[in-house]
## 1
Amino acid sequence: MAALEFPFEPPACNGELIDVVPGEIKWLRMPLPMALNHINLYLVRDGAGWRIIDTGFDTGATRELWERILPSLDGPVTGIVCTHHHGDHSGLAGWLTEKLRVPLHMSRAEYFAMRLVHDLSLDSWEDRAYFRHAGVSDEQVAGFAQALRGFERRSPPAMAYHRLRDRETLTIGDHVWALRSGEGHSPEHIALYSSDLGVLLSGDQLLGRITPNVGVMPFEPEANPLEEWLVSLDYIGELPDETLVLPAHELPFHGLRTRALELKAHHGTTLERVAALCAEQPDTVYGLSRRLFRHRPGAMDTIMAVGETMAHLAYLLKQQRVQRTLTAEGCHVYRISGAA
Ligand SMILES: [Zn+2]
Ligand SMILES: [Zn+2]
């Protein structure tokens, strides 16, 4: 299997377009208001125009960038594809479809997730139960809600969509793209693979340098997303190793199978670390997350660390490698199976 190779330098986050597949696919970047400070978007040649792959997070800066990019193209935008509903990917889907009157393609689960009003106040009893079970105090949760203000969706979502389904295809211009769904990072993520171009538009399903977040969310506290994620990695890892992977973050790369295996190995290592931490000292999800990850103070980072730790614990729980008990204070404490 090939070692990872990163054949391109990134474009600036200012509307610069790079021809990653000359005449067929352009790459651009937009800023994100978080630790991961950019998203990659792509334009795929569609006859005389271009199909947009993912839209950017909805901010004044990203709208301005689109206002600058759209008139610079040599043809009209023919449609929009969103790999999944996360705000950096679908945030401007409603704004763009309204402005351009073009169709939006997404999977069904991602479309409806996008349509939901995202309430980030974290004050439902379910949200509070999730964090209490994880060992996060009510004061911390109030701080998270405060910090998340401003991350709510700004523009209304697109009111209709065309459905993308696993194992079906989407034709864009001269090329037929095979669709592969993935779970674990989001409910029904779609990656697009063209065998004649030798390209995978991987969204967040396969990233070259960072590991996509795989977390248990408050709306499904008993989920086992890591199990789904590992199955999805095997599925995407079946594609040819020489494929050029065009991911939504960091750099395009060659070495698809190597990367899928690296990501699997990464989670395998993390599972062992979590099990070892539970053996050393039984602890809550929050306590374990602090021992597992370098502490970063931001609300989003803490929430993601808690969700990610919980995902690894849910996997170990299903394998019966750890056990979970509820304390009088309402926290789940995890210990290694068989320990007193
Ligand atoms: Zn995502
Ligand atoms: Zn993303």
## 2
Amino acid sequence: MKEGKLITAMSSNREVRIYIAETTELVESARETHDLSPMSTAALGRTLTAAAIMGMMSKMDEERITLQIKGSGEIKLMIAIADTHGHVKAYSSNPLAPTLTRPDGKLAVGEAVGAQGGSVIVIRDYGMGTPFIGQSELVSGEIAEDIAHYFAKSEQQPTAVALGVLVTKEKPVAAAGGFIVQVLPDASDETIDQLEINLNGLKSVTELFSEGLTIHDIGRRVLGDLGMDELEQYPLSYQCDCSQEKMESALISLGKESIREIIDEDGEAEMSCHFCNQTYHFDREALERFYNRAV
Ligand SMILES: [Zn+2]
């Protein structure tokens, strides 16, 4: 299986926490699955990297996190779903967004997403009860800034986020990854100032990857003189959890009336998963069975 990697670390004084992910193979899986254009690869790759990290930041075992980026540009909607075991899957409403470039030659993800009137929506599902839903507006559509703004605004947690997907002529996904760094509530002003200096002097994640730095190196660069104590390392993978049973439940939840319509009009149903494109076929006999179970 194609895998990525996430490490967690803290500054030596235990006042800063950082999560750093390498997601090259995961982004490549998303690109292959959805046949993404370079522009859509960059945008969805950043989104799925953020979701993968946010899933692993959660402490609750059952939690599943859904990250939605809604914009007003070429890419209207991106959804990435991650769990606490490092599984992530993603969907883009526009797999073939055309290439837009910034004056510096980099892919203009913000323009493709379109921040105007857009939003970040985070759904934390604890596997029981009502899920927590947080929302904030898009700041730039570049994803990293938008997620940082989300943490500050919706979860009152000052956070720095960096995400990057390196797309080259030779390799559609040459490198991908990112980090989320948070200062703990009791952090001193000196620590906060030092971290800010480190972050301001830091090159983009894609530049650091293209220089050959590993996520361990990047962590050490971000924390600098604050020192880095590595805590844990986890595998990440692009994986869909759809199944015949889940598709059945989805069909049944449509209700008797809608199922009858499908039977009368088509006599069968075909459903495909938005995240992995797997298709599920249901014949008349199966639909009649669902009809009897539906309300
Ligand atoms: Zn699926």
## 3
Amino acid sequence: MKIKCSIDNKSQLLDVNSNKPLNLILIEESGGTIKLSSCNSHLCGNCIVLLNDEAVLSCLIPAFQLKGARIVTFEGYQKSRFFHDLERAYADTGSQPCPHCFNSKTLIFESLLQRIIKEEGTTSRDEEIDEYAIVKELSLNTCPCLDAQEVIAIYNAAAVYRRRRRVRRS
Ligand code: FES
């Protein structure tokens, strides 16, 4: 089937089997420059990409769900200015994901930043951040290298930088 979508901000017309998983599509279409895990058991969580700004396990997304989708891989994301917010948060807190899960956890943090800070624009700024939801979302990747406290500290540090961007834009 033919599918129009965008991958790392480039329009693509894919010609793929409708059930082919997104991680394999990305690896093949990029000629191997996009590196994603393929554990074949849907358990490792090292195949995360952003699909319409949400962090998803790309091995669980069949091609037929990609019509009109906006897909961002870590390789594309690390060229964006938003990555600097997380790099600074990692440096500020002295904590960061291990090399094994760095790409996937960074994209999960990014999806949380986009969602929560967007919601802050429509609700009270004093509303409590749902720490449980943040830690739960990070568990999409099963690597235990960061504990809950580190996850919250990184998120909070990155959120400060992201809010500053929003203030500068407005
Ligand atoms: S490849 Fe392991 S969870 Fe997707």
## 4
Amino acid sequence: MRAVLLSTTLFALLLGAIPMLACAEAAPSEEGSGETIKLPLPRMDSEVSLEETLAQRRSIRSFTTEALTLDEISQLCWAAQGVTRKDRGFRTAPSAGALYPLELYLVTPDGLYHYDPGAHELAVLSTEYLRGKLADAALRQSSVYSGSCIFVITAVYARTSKKYGDRARQYVHMEVGHAAQNLLLQAVALGLGGVPIGAFHDDRVADVLGLPGDHEPLMIIPVGHPA
Ligand SMILES: Cc1cc2nc3c(=O)[nH]c(=O)nc-3n(C[C@H](O)[C@H](O)[C@H](O)COP(=O)(O)O)c2cc1C
């Protein structure tokens, strides 16, 4: 089984695509089978200016069925939460007290993944098809059914409240906005589209993803090729 999974992952890497992101049974909160997918290094330049991405950004809710490549997945994860200064662990998005309460999960038609910013890799949590259930939990919004990759940003409030007490909730909510906008602008720069989704049942989303008890889902962002 392990050999098959590794070979399918390698195949996906060779194709430069993510459709074969593989893995084990649905035990998402426990970091799955221990399989990981090393992401390609993110690029640090672009043909598109920041100003152009700002001007072009629009909420996109209809997508083609084309999968995202592993390069695109890598770039989007990095934009949202990538490490930009290794010695201090600083990331692309600011964080109150540099405490980094946010976690990034990805749902594709092939499964569920968790992004590790330090290693810039994905932990494969499940190969179960979860996108439909996730969309059901998001008031059946069509963008969640059709996004090629659905990013779910969760937060562990305790990481911030241990220093900032009651103020933490506000800080964490500000931070998810930073991370989400980074991701959405990066999507535009890659010729992709996305939409920030705030309307969903928190407990149902947590249930579908099998989130650890201290992870609260704050935003869902379907991304794909605009239809
Ligand atoms: C906090 C927040 C929650 C949102 N929730 C949803 C949502 O659940 N579904 C949706 O289709 N769009 C959602 N949106 C996107 C807005 O509808 C969209 O940003 C707005 O219509 C302006 O359009 P624009 O993003 O293209 O500029 C949300 C946006 C924000 C900032």
